[in-house]
Each structure stands twice: as C-alpha cells, then as structure tokens.
Amino acid sequence: MHHGLWDYDPPTAPNLIDLTIDGKPVKAVVQVTKQAFAYVFDRITGRPVWPIEEQPVPASSVPGEQASKTQPIPSKPAPFDIQGATDDNLIDLTPEIHQEAIEIAKRYDRGPVFTPPSQRGAIQVPGNAGGASWSGAAVDPETHMLYVPTYRLQSLITIGKPASWEGSYDFIGRSSYLDGPRGLPLLKPPFASIVAIDMNTGEHRWRIPVDRSIAMPSIARLNLPGEYGLLARSFALVTKTVMIVVQMGAASPPRAMPGVYALILDLRNRDPHLWVYDKATGEKLAEIELPSNASGAPITYMTGGKQYIAFPVGGGPVPEELIAVGL
Fold this sequence. Notes:
This protein is mainly beta. It has a domain at 234-327. The protein is globular. The protein has helices at 95-105, 217-220; strands at 15-21, 24-32, 38-42, 52-56, 70-74, 122-124, 138-140, 145-151, 155-160, 172-176, 192-198, 203-209, 234-238, 242-247, 250-251, 255-256, 263-264, 267-268, 273-278, 284-289, 299-303, 306-315, 318-326. A four-stranded antiparallel sheet has the order 7-8-11-12, with no helix packed on it. Strands 13-14-19-20 form a four-stranded antiparallel sheet, with no helix packed on it. A three-stranded antiparallel sheet has the order 1-2-3, with no helix packed on it. The protein is built from two helices and 23 strands.
C-alpha cells in the first residue's frame, strides 16, 4: 500500500503454498493483512497470481496532508472480512441495537477501507489490530486451502496537535477503541471467525465463528440464540485430518506503571478452550477446556509414538507457560 496512514503494516509472516491455477502449477506466496486482503504472488517471479488493481480511495481532510489517490486492491481472493464503517457493517443483533450503533457512528467520519484518519476522528474498519493479525494463517498443502483467523476490531483514529513531550510535528494520530451500544462491539457478528479459501480458485468456501460469544457479558445479557464468536485473536493449526484452534483472552483496561513510558495492558482469561474442526466443512468436532487462553500459535510434534499439540499461554498477571495436549 502507499503512504500508510492506518498502521496497516503486514502483521505476520506470509505463507508458502503450491497451487494449480487453470491447470498450471504455481509456486505462490500469500500475505494476509490487517485490511482483510490476501495478496497472492508467484514466489519465483514476484508477479501477482491474480491482478492487483490500483483503485481510487478517499482523500484526506487534514490540512497539509495528501493521502495517496489510489491503493492496490486484489481482484482475488475477495476480502476475508468486512471493510469500512458502513451502516450495513454495524452490529445488528436487534433493530434497536443497530440503530443505536448508527447513532454512535454518526459522530465520526467513516467510509470505505482506506478512509484516512481525520481531526474529527475516523472509524477504521478493519482497525489497526483487526483483520488478520500476528496470528497469521494456516495452509493445507494437500487441498491448497488457506485458513485465515480474523476478528472484527475497529479503531478510532483522531488527528490532533501533539503535546509538548510528543515532539514538534504539525499533527499526530491517536488510536483508541470505540465502544458499540450497551457495551457491545460496534461491528456485526461473527466477531471472530476463520475463513477457508480455496487458493486454486481464490474462492471462499466457508466461515465459522470461533468460541462462544456468551463469554462476553454484554452478549450473554441479551439471551439471543446463535453463535457469534468471541472478539479475540485466534490461532489455527491444520493437520492431515483436522484443524486445531486456540484463542487469546481479553486485554484489561490500560493502566499506568511507575517508570514505564506506556500504558500497560494485562491479559485476562476468558472461556479458554482448544477447538477441533473438520477442516473440509468447518464442523466442530470436539472441544477441550484449558487452564488459560493461548497467547501464541500451536505446533504439533511426535514423541514416544504419541502426537501432541503445544502452545504458549499467559502474559501480565497470567502465568506464562507452555501447554501440551496429548491426542
């Protein structure tokens, strides 16, 4: 992307995958991004596997700022999550909640993906920690499927004058979380999901919510049927037979710590499980209760004739450990 104003740096390592496109073998590399695009290149030549087109994007309203007039948009695959703070993308669990979300969003600037930050405050969807995060994606080398964990976390980016200790810039940007109505998320469910993409064709095959949204008190109070996913990063591991998924916990409200030049976010456990899915259909096959939420991706290994899944947990006040689950 050009002239990055959104903190849309590539958040994770790319995936290598060998494809068959229009009957021809292609050694490809796939980069999933915060803005919910997957950019796919021939890893031998660097050329896009499918066209990546320069398309016009909104201009900046900040005095003296000239945002890039275009951004590179992949023609395939389609975005793996919602983009832009449009009315259609706001939480819609009931008509009343949807209208309350619209009223919140009206206070700020908003538009399609790549809408620039503004002095009034612009709602960025996906946010700078949403979409595909540092949890990355998983590849099945036999079926050529890409499994992308993604979650719907928006950012409110406000441009203003810096404080004296922040330097002599004309403007700086500040990022914050914007609550939805009644303490709910601002964006519609599924709040966290995994999307399966057939990389031979670039077509989406299915999307499943990850974890139980009733672990979010604001959702549990509504007593609505259905699964909407738990708003958190998740990590996927694909084996020859199944997909294993673990998920992060919740971040605490920011707190100050003496001598530390930053606000501290602690991790809190929230409905920690290991989930097992049919990798072809997304059907949930099993769940295992865990002592803590994951804070990193799982791996699998064999020892003594037995297979294990291992992953890290903890951070802040939650003990930092490795957990291994035997199959």
